[in-house]
Amino acid sequence: MQITHLVATRGTCLRRKVGAILVKDKRILSTGYNGPPSGLPHCDELGGCLRNRLNIPSGQRHELSRALHAEQNAIIQAAIHGFSVQGAVLYSTTQPCSICTKELVQAGVREFIIAEGYPDEMALEIMNLAGVVVRHVPFTLPTMPPFGPAEPTP
Length: 154
Fold this sequence. Notes:
With 154 residues, the chain is α/β, with parallel strands linked by helices. It has 5 helices and 5 strands. A 5-stranded mixed beta sheet has the order 2-1-3-4-5. A hairpin with a 2-residue loop joins strand 1 and strand 2. Helix 4 packs parallel to helix 5. The longest helix has 11 residues, at 70-80. The radius of gyration is 17 Å and the shape is globular.
């Protein structure tokens, strides 16, 4: 989950930074973060977020976003590089929306490990109907040992 949160830092969405990783046989197949298609301007370059300007609540009117979602980008990157994601596990900083859930289910991903929820009841219904296993794993930063010279051994 730490890697997923690191991937999320690359996101350019002004509302929420999301990271997603598809893992199969304990190997990362692909990563994705949210932002516009490659080569297109980001929302901050176009005067801000349209969904914010229209006061659209989180989880609604996804079609108005210029960004691809992190999960979509992870599926696309796997396809570009020729990796099947059937049987893979999704790790995501946020529960997928209904659009991404449909795409993941169609691609054969049946386990989602997520750090936080998302207000999309249809996504939950699709997960339930498809038999997707959902595990919530809240993210906490690991504690690191202090840096400095090692203590001498007696």
